[in-house]
Every structure is written in structure tokens, then in C-alpha cells.
Amino acid sequence: MTFEWIQIPYSLMTLLIVIIYAFFMTALIAKIGARAGRRYGIRIHQNFLDLFKNYSLRSSITHGYMFYLAPVFRLTGGIGLLLFVPTIYGSQMFSNLSFAGDLILALYFIFFGTLGMALGAAESGHPYAAIGISRGLSQVTMAELPFALSVFAIAVQYQTLSVTDIVAAQQGGFMNWTVFTNPLAVTAAMMSFLGTMMRSPFDLHLAPQEIPIGPPTEYHSSYLALMQTNRNLFPVAKVVIYMNLFFGGATNWPVFFLKVFLIYLFSAFVGVVFPRFRVEQSIRWFMVWAVPVGIAAILLV
Amino acid sequence: MKEELQKRTVKGPDGFEFEVDPLNDYYCSEAPKAHPPAYAKIVESFFNWARSESIWILGFGTGCGAIEMRPLMTPRFDAYRFGVQWRPTPRQANLFIISGYLSVKTLKRAIRSYEQMQNPKYVLGLGSCTINGGMYWDSYNTIKKLDDYMPVDLFVAGCMPRPEALLASFEELKKVIKAGKAEGANAYAENFDWYKANQKKVIKDWDMPDYNW
Question: Pick from A5, A113, A289, B29: most CB atoms within 10 A?
């Protein structure tokens, strides 16, 4: 696909739609989680209020350059992940900046924000931030492994590294989706999905009951507002990858909204049912259950 | 001054010697600055609305009243539906609930936490002990008027007030914030010397910098 300037405003429009959707959807998921606990839950527009509130704080302090840059890195990870894969398949407007080798780039972007966060959290000097980031990094690293294996498996299956081509191969009925043509790879990837969604049982690094807040302990005001934006955007961007790779992509916005919501809901359901793992338990869980499935997916493809 | 806060020379594991001055290295000595409302009235009203509808409480229970805050997170009272939530770190919190009596030892921690919160910040005195000492009025080790030590936006009387009273107080606080009258952080910065003098009067073992940002 050749680059045209009109893609830039189109991509910004995608970003706007997805961010607004992400804020409402995250609140809806939080409400569903609250209903499971028999609470009423937050208001549907609460995420926007929190965001405006954090932008409106008058003072903020800094701990150094990386402290400034970490939220920016984090948001770059989320936006980059979203913009380098096609959001709506077959639409010139919402294909964003996807190109031939974007699958590898997406794998990189998933990790990018976490690394930026590690640098910023280390500079903030708070012990909880350091503990949280060491736990979070080890868990995300482990969770990435089955996902990487499954991505390689489907790259071999479809003989391409382009997300657009992978989506194209899955068109024409739901039986063509990767989830039915290569269930092992999807199983491994969905296990890894749980590990990176920052929900129970894999939320040890920031659960308030374990170490208060974790890596962003020192973050406040507009730094936190940036990170909140990413906190809502990034999971949706990640779900878009999953939707494109495994669940046939989306050809229009309503299908996109529904699929993203359902895939996201999967992690929320697991989250309200299962209690939290300690970090060595979660790593062992990935080693024992997810990685072998990923290896089997590669061997059998 | 405690020994660990003294200026000293430390030898690292690689044999490198360096000087550590905890009070200057770990804290900022700068006094707080007042941040008056900076934007046009309509923007400031919008921000006040956002601030009032998204109240993040510092999860720091100073006295027996802290037990009244727990039920608010549970299905019975569920404060989250009013935009209220708890943050375990002062950096992200906007509302500091002094829940009941405040011993001098806890006052020290309360001041440190309060000063680390970002402007605008609000203080809610929960229970009679924060108003006039309550049943601890002749105690040798608790403060009597919270307002002397940090600017309080709202008092909730009672011993102890029920969780319903706390919910009602959140609604009252929202009205105060929306009216633009919750400028406690600026009042603290403007009358910094007076507050510090009061604090130092009761805290005998003052071993922290004057301001903890």
C-alpha cells in the first residue's frame, strides 16, 4: 500500500473514535465487574470525568526527564499499536498506516509502553514503583512468549507478516477465522491475552491490595491523565490485533465495537471469577499451560 | 534529629565514598506556592465540575472513623457510583479524610501526606474529635482543632458519623467545590508560616523538612 497524505487525518479520526469508544467501554466493563460484586458500579462517563479532573490539577512535580517521558512512551505504545494495524478491514479510511511487515512492529509496540514505564517508574524513586515494575515486566515478558509463538504459528499458516493479508485470508464466513482454522494458536494467544490485560488473576503488579498502585505510584496530574488515556486505549488497541489475527477482523464499525467488547469481556469474566496469582505462580502458569500450547501450535501448523 | 537523618559519609560496596544529606537529598526545601484559578471563569467552572465529580480519597485512616469508610466500598453503600474512589498514594488523591481523633504521632504523617497531595486538595474532618477534640478533649496526645493544622473544607459531626453521613458529606463537598470555594491548598500556602508554627507547637520531635512537597 502506498502512502497518501489523506491517511493522516483518517488515522486521527480512527484514533478519536477508538479513544471515545475505549473510555465508554472500559467503564461498561468496570460496571459489569461491579455487578458481579453486587455493586452498582461507576457511572458510564466516569472515565472522562477522571481524565478532565487530572488535567485540571494545578500543580505537578517532576522527578527527572524519564519521569516526563514515561507517560509519553506509554501513550506512544498505545497509539502506535492502534495506528499500524488496520482497524476496519477493506476500508481505505480506517486502514490507518498498515504496511507489509506490520505484524512484527505490532509485537514490538505491545512491549514498548511497558519498557517506557519501567524507566519512568525507576526514576520516580518510589520503592513500590520498583517492585511493581519488576513484577510487571517479568509477568509481561512471560505472557508475551505464548503470544509470540502463536503469532509465528499463524504467520507460517498464512505465509505473510501483514495483518491486512491475514484478515483478508479469514474473510468469507466465520469458519475461516483463525480461531477455527488454528485453535491451538488462538488458545495460546488468549492465555497470553489474560496475562497482559492487567486484570485478576494477573494484576499483582498494581493491585491496591498488594502494593498500592505499583509502577504509577508517583504519577499525578497531567502525567496520570496521559497514562489514563493509554490505560483505556492500549487494551483496545491490543484487542484490535487479536480481533484481526484470530477473529476475522471487522468490516464496519458496529462489528468492530461488538467484537472488541466481547474479546475484552473475556478477560473481565476471567478476572471476576479467579483470584490473584503471585508472580511466581503466574509465570509457572504460563510455562505449564500456555507455552506448550504455543509450541504445539507451531509444530502442527 | 534522628541518626538516620544526619548528614554523613557512606562507603559504597565498590569502595566509593559519598556524602548523604537525607533532608536535602530526599526532600525539597521550597515552600508551597499558591496556585490561584488561572483560566477564564467558564473553564474554571468546568474544571470545578470535573473535580467535584471525580473525588479521589487518600486511603489513610487516621483514627477509629476509618472503619466507617470501608463500608462505602461495599455493595451496601457503594460510593463509586458518586465518582468517589480510593487511591493508596497521596500523589493521586484529592480528598484527605481525617477520620476521627488525630494523635500527635499521626499528625506528623498526616502533614506529610497532605503536603504531597497536588493542588487543589480538600480535607474533610470526620467526627467530633476533629472539631473540638471530642471525647479526647483532655488527652495529652491528640490534637483538638484540626483546622489549626491544615485547612479543612468540611466537618462531619458525630461520634462516629454513619457511612450515610459520609455519603451526604461527599454531596456537600461537591457543592463547595462547584461553587469554587474549596481553595484550601492555596490557603495553606498563603498562611504557611501560621500552620507550620501551630504544627511545630504540638510536634515535639520535628525531624522532617518544613515542606514535603
Answer: A113
